[in-house]
């Protein structure tokens, strides 16, 4: 689209002057963008203006880089497998054991949860972190319980930091009052607010800074790569460094497997000063369900995250292959606080730009420029991948995931979910619930109680299906209600390797 703007205007220009002409057009686009941003700032005053001004500085930088990019950000031919020692097996890290004084390590740690997302994809209003996932506990409740348990067990002071977005900040802050008497200090800071850009003109679609009416659609939080700048700008980064904190453990708030791991923490804080590892990315073995996940590669001598959006179309199948790229990024990251401060102050945080096209309600085509937190791995010294067990990656993105974590496959203790020892295989079943289950409220109505799934391998449910109490599912179970039919699985049923079709015939699978 950007190339179209530049190329379209360059017809008839002699080849010799093409580069010069394109550079002139880039400058013109950039100048127009700066003028529009100034006009937006002039629509407000005071603190809001100052916050937006800081946000816009970051956006200008991103937009400038977006205009400079000429083609794909990676050359496929230069991609190499990471050297053996750059991705360590978790067992090797854990084999070193723990020190006598775990508290010393924990007091250097801050837990950061990415809390910018809404629950809209699961049919919920408000922040996703406030959806109940287990025994009336929300994602946020479980996070607070985990950290409080650490602080009580080891007599430490590990704080929780939430990176909110303008979508989640207000509702989250209201809820935080309920944790006042818990043994965990909670801080928040806000992601930036960037303007969505018209795909054709490459100018902001908003006419003022308000979030009301149609204007609300003109803004977006620019991906979790924004954590470095917004954390630094909030003043919280400096505050935590002054308190003696050295590392943050960052993860998505909807990943219930992302708990503080004492072995990884000890590995980080026990390194000699000159060889300090500034960035750890937890990766895990790829299955066919994870083919779109980012992977680690060696590129121009550095460990680097490769996302599917960066892959040339001709190589997408190769990228998805489980044999060539065997691991993927869980987005559980351990990052040095002083290193973030250094890179921010040197303006050396370099992350690939993700161009995310959207269509607004009125049909207008826009783009939003984003970055991913893991993409900064190449900027840090002595970066390392650790291949962790799959249990550290338990994201709840859909009601199918929710069914797994609500079931007897997992037990809950001190905010942490662990696979039941009664399950014979360590793998999670593959669950696919149809569109009648997409929204949490509809999903809850369809289960009188959550089925026993200890021996389940695969469940597919499609159409108007309900489950009575104390249903047990084993092996492969496929339930398909045809359009206009309804299937009620009776209370107490035990389905093992069964296909249940439209008129409730039960067949052996």
Automatic annotation (TrEMBL):
E.C. code: 2.7.7.9
Binding site for substrate: 224
Keywords: Nucleotidyltransferase, Transferase
UniProt keyword Transferase present: yes
GO biological process: glycogen biosynthetic process; UDP-alpha-D-glucose metabolic process
Catalytic activity field: alpha-D-glucose 1-phosphate + UTP + H(+) = UDP-alpha-D-glucose + diphosphate
Self-association state and partner proteins as the record states: Homooctamer.
Name the record gives this protein: UTP--glucose-1-phosphate uridylyltransferase
Upper lineage: Eukaryota, Metazoa, Chordata, Craniata, Vertebrata
